[in-house]
Amino acid sequence: MSFPLLTATAVAPALGAVVTAAVPAAQRAAAKWVALGFSLLTLALAAVVLVRFDPGGARFQLTESHAWIKDFGVRYELGVDGIAVALIALTAVLIPFIILAGWHDADPLEGARPNSRWRPTQGFFALILMVEAMVVISFEATDVFLFYIFFEAMLIPMYFLIGGFGDRAGGRSEEETATQRSYAAVKFLLYNLAGGLIMLAAVVGLYAVTADELGTGTFSLQEIVQARAGGHLDMASSTERLLFLGFFFAFAVKAPLWPLHTWLPNAMGEATAPVAVLITAVVDKVGTFAMLRFCLQLFPEASKWATPAIMILALISIIYGALLAIGQRDIKRLIAYASISHFGFIILGIFAMTTQGQGGATLYMVNHGVSTAALMLVAGFLITRRGSRLIEDYGGVQKVAPVLAGTFLIGGLATLSLPGLAPFVSEFLVLVGTFSRYPAFGVIATVGIVLAALYVLILYQRTMTGPVKAEVRSMPDLRVRELVVVAPLIALLIFLGVYPKPLADIVNPAVDHTMSVVDKKDPRPDHPVTDAGWFTYSPKSDGASHDGASGGAK
Amino acid sequence: MTHAATVHSLWTTAAAAPDKIPSPDIEYGQLSPTLIVLGAAIVGVLIEALLPRRQRYVAQVFVSVVALAAAFAAVIGLAAGDYGTSKAHVAAMGAIAVDGPALFLQGTILLVALVAVFTFAERRLDPLVHGNRVDSFAAQAAAVPGGDAEKAAVKAGFTTTEVFPLVLFAVGGMLVFPSANDLLTLFVALEVFSLPLYVLCALARRHRALSQEAAVKYFLLGAFSSAFLLFGIALLYGYAGTVTYSGIADVVDGQVRNVTPALAGTMGNDALLLIGGAMVLMGLLFKIGAVPFHMWTPDVYQGAPTPVTGFMAAATKVAAFGALLRLLYVVLPGLRWDWRPVMWGVAIVTMLGGAIVAVTQTDVKRLLAYSSIAHAGFILAGVIATTPDGVSSVLFYLAAYSFVTLGAFAVVTLVRDAGGEATHLSKWAGLGRRSPLVAAVFAVFLLAFAGIPLTSGFAGKFAVFKAAADGGAGALVVIGVISSAIAAFFYIRVIVLMFFSEPRTDGPSVAVPSPLTSSAIAIGVAVTLVLGVAPQYFLDLASQAGVFVR
Lengths: 554, 550
Hints:
The complex is a heterodimer. By secondary structure, chain A is mostly helical. Chain A has one domain (11-523). Chain A is 70% helix and 3% strand. Chain A is built from 21 helices and two strands. Chain A is globular and about 70 Å long. Residues 541-554 of chain A have low confidence and may be disordered. By secondary structure, chain B is an all-alpha fold. Chain B has one domain (27-544). Chain B is 69% helix and 2% strand. Chain B has 21 helices and five strands. In chain B, the strands form two sheets. Chain B has a three-stranded antiparallel sheet. In chain B, strands 1-2 form a two-stranded antiparallel sheet. In chain B, β1 and β2 form a beta hairpin. In chain B, α4 packs antiparallel against α6 (163-176). The longest helix of chain B has 33 residues, at 208-240. The two termini of chain B are 47 Å apart. The interface between A and B is large, with 41 and 41 residues. Chain B: It is found in: Cell membrane; Endomembrane system; Membrane.
């Protein structure tokens, strides 16, 4: 038996969580280093996964499969495709930065209660690692039930991270902060739990359908996809649509898609900046990832049926998120609404059902993770210095702390998809992919980019430029620890912006496969002259995609 | 003259009867779990009568633990001897079924009772009274609350060690209840386990008036439901001419007609069957605590001493669901198109009613009471499936649920202020800061109640929902997840309260328990996590045990 690499990648942070939690209360500095060590170990394992993964190879690689709960037809089945590998890498890269950025987040809670068992620092870092473990295993699971378990279970550590370790900035009384914080945590949990429970009904339904049609119920993605392709598994279209909606609802809450998004600004606003990054850059990606992996592949017909409605919701998310971001007075809530807008782009790309669209959406997941992390973490450093989240409390920071302002600007420019930075590539692909099938939607979505420029530049202008406010005059610039967090993220943004090929190479075969399961081909270009795929990669179905048989609007 | 003739003829028919009474043939070995427990209960009574007061506590705890463990070993022995599967049959002259579900449920009840006895025996939580260690039970049950006799009893350091034989009698009845194979045995078993529970409910050391009120309420409503059950039994006898399960089932299936001349007028009358069946079901649904027969649950759960509540909530539910399953699957399968719609309705209002009313509760014990109602609804969804999977999922759910419940109530006994247990939710604010471990353990139980994955609650919920969906009750599954979502709200509210609220300065403290309660809680947590992460072995066990003998 070969080394269970995927299990190890998920177990490493889980083990880290246990070890971190076990560090004695007095040694809280050691706990931070232990957590960082385990996150780096996970990163190393994720790097091995990335290296061992062969983009041209089988659909799912590094697979592991063991019987788990026979009665429910549940297997412990892991396997990664290009999309999963990219997202695992993103998660593993971001967590060490999140831990470093949150180095002092739990300190205010220390000493508040003289109790030998009270260990907030250990708890904070253990919870972050716990979330990482659960996110990684949800990216790896190819068994629907296994995925569901961790999809749901990750809510619990997330909930404690939001509710237990909130942002103390904001100039409110301690009591009001506590109320707001627990409100945000409960809202997060209830939204996601409601989504998850509806999905549970669909999961049970899926079991009933497979048990009916195949004799034994199964949750194995590969088995179900094969059975559907081979015609052994017929779902009545009404059943399929209901199941699809059950799954999609949960993912749309998680993603989050308008109108199920309202928990995100609360959660991101009240959580500390590193936890906010954890929510939007890591945990929420599970939602969009699951749309690609489960919604489209398990229910291809229903996905096509629902596409118009979902595209419209995605468009609303893009525009609505951007408009609300412009109107925000709170830096973190602004970034939250910007994220809603970006998730709109990702979902738009997924349901455009073109290779560019889905490839772009996958790249967008990675790039949005990195760019939001950069912007949010710098914003977090800024907020800790001033003790306020309100934009109006800042002004002229670039004169006092030029490095901070510069990194904030780069993070912001990445968020508005400036060419040369990573998100541009993905946003462009999403728009191209959407435009080739739904020109009108593509045009409307482009408005989102203009609005993005507005909210980012207004934010920068109001906080960083202008006369130096008295309160920010003595603001120190970025410290070494903070630079260590920000610099690599910015380097990554620039690298992926000018040379996205390595990432695209990993992602594209998986996207092609998804497209083939959904039985969709790219529409024929109006001027098929120079379009030979993108970045020298040519899809296997290249010839077929030009025959025009399935062109048109659907 | 005619009058005399009637008497005469009656007398002669009766006189002929002795020939027909067969000599009883009792399989003592197969009934050994029940016999051990009842025997130990009688030993317990003798201990009360003969031993000096100081030695009773140790002797009673010893006898109870040994008896429950021995009875459990006997159940294991029977199961290992294939009495659960290939050798399943009806013992004791057709009165008791020895089969898979019976053994599985008996095993569960015995383990639950064993853990519950640990919490009954706890004597470190209350402060010393006149230098004596005391438990959760009244010094002298017969003394009037607040009266001179009570003060004297407290001063003398009396404790009510009678609780142990009472528990054993209750357990004896519960062991018979799910394995009863005729309606009279069912009724006798019901009374055998109910009467000790009524008494146990009245024995709280603190808030005695509340406790006695709970007991009276429970007794009155319980007596009422027993009457329903008994009347239903009479009607079913009129319908079938027999009280054995298989006999009634044969008549329902139309295989037997008019064998008893005396009942020629009523036998096979569907009105009797439907009304009788409904009344028997009512009696059982009362014990389960299903809406609309749930009214007693919150008051009794709140008033009873907490260890008793935990025992009652866990073990009664197991026993009553076992009896319900047997009744519906053995006696009335031929009537399933009649009872399924009714049970659908009951399951729906139970799930939604329990979950919605729980949202407004402010007392931990009442909250858990309403949550137990909601859970009864989830289990009913599995009962309605009428597939073999339905039986095994219900068995699994019962085993999983009962340990979570026991553990949760054991934690409730730890949180105390000057007035005894601090059950009002506002007092639990900030408990997570004060005693992270206790709060974390309680959070685990709450998450299991809420059905969060990796806890036994999720595995159980999934099992019953899967069975229900397979059995064609998809709509029930949807309503089930909706009420789960509602239920999640109030479980989470308690977690919020414990971890994210500021502790009150006059808040309760967490008592340091003896190893007894600690081990009860530890067993609860262990079972919750093991059944959540690796449920396969127990699911196998439940599905092997899922066949009723007829």
